[in-house]
Amino acid sequence: MDKELIKKGIAECFGTFVLVFFAVGTAVMTNANVVATALAFGLVIIAMAYTIGRISGCHVNPAVSLGAFLSKRITVKEFAVYVAAQFLGAIIGAVLLYAVNSMVAGGRPDLLVWGTNGVITGNRTAGTIFASLILEIILTLVFVYVILAVTSKKGDPKKAGIIIGLTLTLVHLLGINLTGTSVNPARSFGPALMRVIFGGGARALADYWIFLVAPLAGAVLAVLAFKFMHKEEEEEGLLGAPKEEA
Predict the structure, then answer these.
(1) What is the pLDDT of residues 72-111, one digit of tens each?
(2) Of all helices (H) and strands (E), which one includes residue 74?
(3) For residue 191, what are the CA distances in angstroms to 61, 74, 90, 164, 196?
(4) Measured CA distances, 159 to 105, 164, 209, 224 (Å)
(5) At residue 148, does pLDDT exceed 50?
(6) Which residue ranges make up each domain of the chain?
(7) What separation in angstroms does the CA of 196 have from each of 27, 95, 112, 151?
């Protein structure tokens, strides 16, 4: 693996760690206060976009990486490294969040429930699972579509990070009281894994497939929407890998 790709992987790992530790951490510490949590997710993305964005593109989300890959902005090798790094970062963030939360709350792992995603209403009927899937697909579609559009060659790179962060805030404002808002398979996996290991919440991991399938499906639809709506634009921008010299 070349040094540049390793650096990108480290950047993605760090960015996803920050997302889970600070944004999911805000949800944990504020009992999932909608405005505080939504702002935390948006602010983290803005901060990371203007720091690691110049290194890896600041995906910090397998769904975003899938969108970039399908749009031919990153290679299959980069996609694999990005996704692996994102999941690792999410796990590290969740572990440290659990450790801090345990100390602050006097060892109350049940509080980690606020950091996990769940099915709408908490029931396990086909209807609520279907509703959760549809919601997460729509939220991810909008989020990834905006990213592809603002990071295309006709987008404004100086404003892209702010727009993406505000869009993530927007989708969280709607989704927090429903599924907790995932739109990110890595972000959902870290807290769910910790809750199973330390909190005994097996259901968190059992429901995880929803927050893996839906965001990836949403990303695919976002790419199709972008290709249809922006046929005249070259699909290469901030999310693209640097071109290799001949």
Answers:
(1) 999 999 999 999 999 999 999 999 998 888 777 565 556 6
(2) none
(3) 15, 28, 8, 23, 9
(4) 39, 9, 34, 24
(5) yes
(6) 3-229
(7) 18, 12, 10, 37
Q: State the Cα–Cα distance between residues 209 and 189, nearest whole angstrom.
A: 9
Measured CA to CA, the distance from residue 240 to residue 223 in angstroms comes to 14
CB atoms near residue 43 (< 10 Å): 17
The greatest distance separating any two alpha carbons of the chain, rounded to the nearest whole angstrom, comes to 59
d(CA 170, CA 93): 23
Task: Give the C-alpha distances (Å, rounded to integers) separating 134 from 142, 184, 210.
Answer: 12, 15, 10
Cβ of 105: how many Cβ atoms within 10 Å? Answer: 14
Find, among 229, 226, 191, 246, the residue nearest to 73 by Cα: 226
In terms of phi and psi (left: phi > 0; alpha: psi -120 to 50; beta: otherwise), the region of 145 is alpha
pTM, two decimals, is 0.91
- The residue written with tokens 């993530």 in the block is 168
Least Cα distance to 191 among 65, 5, 17 occurs for 17
Distance (Å, whole) CA 121 – CA 179: 8
* DSSP conformation letters of 54-71: HHH----SHHHHHHHHHT
Domain 3-229 has CATH 1.10.3720.10: no
Q: Which of 42, 59, 48 is nearest to 173 (CA)?
A: 42
Q: Which pLDDT score, from 0 to 100, does residue 54 have?
A: 93
Q: Is 29 helix (H, G, I), strand (E, B) or coil?
A: helix
Q: How far apart are CA 193 and CA 202, in angstroms?
A: 9
